[in-house]
Amino acid sequence: MKIESLVIHGGIDGDEKTGAVNVPVYQTSTYKQPSFGHNTGYEYSRTGNPTREALEKLISDLEEGYAGFAFASGMAAITAVISLFKTGDKVIISNNVYGGTFRVLDKVFNNFNIGYKIVDTTDLEAVRNNVDESVKAIYIETPTNPLMDITDIEGISKIAKEKGIFTIVDNTFMTPYLQKPITLGADIVIHSATKYLGGHSDVVSGLVVVNTEELAKRLHFIQNSTGGVLGPFDSFLLIRGIKTLAVRMDRHNENSKIISEYLKSREEIEKVYYPGFEDHPGYEIQTKQAKGYGGVISFVLSDKIDYKKFLSNLELITFGESLGGVESLICHPASMTHAAIPYDIRQEVGIVDNLIRLSVGIENSQDLLEDLTSALKKSL
Ligand SMILES: Cc1ncc(COP(=O)(O)O)c(C=O)c1O
């Protein structure tokens, strides 16, 4: 089945018992055991729930992995994955990972002596040189949030395999419709499903897909032990959202191409970060490893524009956290999504104060262009 059909019919399709075309919401915490020593395959919903399982099977099918796991947020998913490691282990992370990922490593896992090393993962030699005995995984986002750096997933996976360590890819920005890290050699894929997979800004959730039975067993143990599972109704909402992933991503791709070209042409804008530009340093790798360039664009406003006024003057584009919804969302990474990253590191990697991140929605592109033009004019 092709992915456009798989998003609709993958995982567990409908309900065998009644013929309902949608998987029911099994809103239950527990299950009746038919007799002593026997159960239906379900005992307690932290351990297993049929609606959650349908979602877990669906994401596993879409990512072409061995098994999927659903969590109460992207951060709960990341926390479960990092819990695979133990005291003394280290993880290499890309140099502009999502602020929350940095925070959980820096402020939570550091306390348990699970460390991290920040490396420019676009530079494969730098990655190779930084893998020492303590490094147990390379954790990448590609494109990165918010600077849209592109890392070669196949290149990283080769290094990790040579060294006997894991490759973990946060695939939130691309989704399996555009990029499938496991097919490129990765071991674990993570999603903030809050974003494109859910797609409607109405559910906070995280998903993980692993490529082996052994990792599946370990992750299920962690999921059940630590308990950050996704509830049945939110699982249903995600299944519903994923059904339209293909058409939504096509439109996100189309609109962001138009908006990125517009932004590049404006003199009020100093720089545009978009991996679909042929002069983007990661263009070739992105074109090779993904089916499109996604819906996120970051840009630096010139000094002439007051960024606070610009953000307040937008009318159609919503000023707020998050991305990947049907509606266009805009944010200020330095004070919002990436505020957890210390000022000096932010300056060093390019998360400057007049950097803006735009998640291009699926509205009419002309309406979006008009909103941007009017806000730029009002913010001089
Ligand atoms: C790339 C990326 N990964 C992980 C997360 C965390 O996900 P959540 O907000 O669902 O916990 C985010 C949130 O913005 C993100 O952008």
From TrEMBL:
The modification N6-(pyridoxal phosphate)lysine is found at residue 195. GO terms for molecular function: cystathionine gamma-lyase activity; cystathionine gamma-synthase activity; homocysteine desulfhydrase activity; pyridoxal phosphate binding. Transmembrane segments: none annotated. It comes from the Bacteria. GO terms for cellular component: cytoplasm. GO terms for biological process: cysteine biosynthetic process via cystathionine; methionine biosynthetic process; transsulfuration. Its EC number is 4.4.1.1, 4.4.1.2. Pfam families: Cys_Met_Meta_PP. This is Cystathionine gamma-lyase. It comes from Clostridium pasteurianum DSM 525 = ATCC 6013.
